[in-house]
Amino acid sequence: MRLNARVTVGAATAALLPALLLGAVGCSSKDAPAAGKTPDPKGSAPADSPAASPGGAPGGSAAPKAAASKLERSALEQGDLPGYQVSAQGKNPNAPDGQPQADRKACQPLADIMGDKPDPAARETVNRGVGSQKQVGLAVSASVSSYAESDAKALVARLKDAVAACGTGFSATVDKQSGSYRDVRPAEYKTAGDESVSWTTTAAAQGVSAQVHVVVVRQGATIVRLMALNVAATADRQKPQVPHEVADKQLEKVRSAG
User: Fold this and answer.
1) Would you give the distance in Å from CA 123 to the centre of its chain?
2) Contact criterion met (CB below 8 Å) for 30 and 124
């Protein structure tokens, strides 16, 4: 999986990412469509496509399609961020499906956030992969999810509690693949939005590890999830941080989409 012209994920890291980050970096996915609807083989449909616009496909109500179109408009697209490549391809076929299960109940919200969607209460999720052309190896997974506003507020509260309770780490399993998250630490990160939570952790599996920085922001009933890691195969690779320009642009698009 190539993130940009200068960075290729090494074999060990490529094995780690699908197991622990669900292949989100450089790829995208959308929750499975409702029964009776045909999924787009390329992933999320563009906002102006018949599949995403009201009345574009027979047999469905206009309201769900309007909501999907709004969420698609909220997602990052190529050209939104100078110096970055934005991928809207289908989900990495090597990535396991579903929500990871933590070995500690208190840490389940942190395991969920690494899944196909931020947690089971998400109504719909659109994922994007962002590769930096400025910092070699920096990759960001960016997703937007629609919620009932009360559920979105509850998610942020649970994440804050989990970060405080899980400093020593936890293990998680998804689709028979297991890994661990060590040294969960709260991280200062200023961003717009109604409320946010940020932390760092070290993900490990199959004898390799990678530091991850996670930022979750609530804007009304929308949850923005950003995960950054450095996949550069160098001993002195920088600690990853979600670039503020990526977070700011993502939140700007959420607000603009209404």
Assistant:
1) 15
2) yes
Angle formed at CA 101 by CA 96 and CA 104, multiple of 5 degrees? 150
* CA 45/CA 148 separation, integer angstroms: 23
Residue 213: closest CA among 203, 205, 201, 204: 201
State the total domains in the chain. Answer: 1
Q: Residue 217 is part of which domain span?
A: 2-32+41-257
Distance CA 82, CA 140 (A): 15
Collapsing DSSP to helix, strand or coil, 186 comes out as strand
Residues 6+ apart with CB under 8 A from 94: 14, 18, 23
Q: Grade residue 236 by pLDDT with cuts at 50, 70 and 90.
A: low
23, pLDDT greater than 70: no
Task: For residue range 168-194, list pLDDT tens digits in order.
Answer: 999 998 877 888 999 999 999 999 999
